[in-house]
Amino acid sequence: MKLISGIFLFLLPLVSAMPVLDAELATPAKNETAAERSLKTMAAKALNNTLATLDADVEAAKKAGLKPNCTRETLEWRQEFGSMAKDDRKAYTAAVACLMAKPNRTPKNISTGARSRFDDFIVTHVLQTPFVHDSATFLPWHRWYLYIYEVSLRKECGTGNGPNMSTPRRPPPSSTAMPTP
């Protein structure tokens, strides 16, 4: 069971980074390329396989008399901001505003610019940039950073599911859409 949990924890960042759930993954979008369709299909399969593995792990834990910590109900999903329900967008925005209103924890000798709890995250990122960017720790560090940010939103301000910013819901405007002078 530890192996299955380990595999699931390895796949969780990949699954949680997906912008939409399985039903929407199967629906082709307008002007979608074959590569985009293929990627959506692979993402849907990965999600379904991961959830099947999770379900099997939960059942094995129950049969062993253990209470599973990670279930479908306890998973945290990230969605693209525009795909989030209106109430979820408002809750997330309110939580960010809440962090902005809380006093900072960064000592003045580290940064005199941090004025709020939200600023603490900015200072941390700025100070770590020379060590994290252009290194092998780039992706794991940023996953940890977002995790800590979401935990802070949840514990300090009541919500924590931040939006997935990696995949835009709408494609960027093409250069041909711009008016010519």
TrEMBL record:
Residues 1-17 form the signal peptide. SUPFAM superfamilies: Di-copper centre-containing domain. InterPro entries: Di-copper_centre_dom_sf, Tyrosinase/Hemocyanin, Tyrosinase_Cu-bd. Residues 160-181 are annotated as: Disordered. Residues 169-181 have a biased composition (Pro residues). This is Tyrosinase copper-binding domain-containing protein. Keywords: Metal-binding, Signal. One of its GO terms (molecular function) is oxidoreductase activity. The keyword Transcription regulation does not apply. Residues 133-150 form the Tyrosinase copper-binding domain.
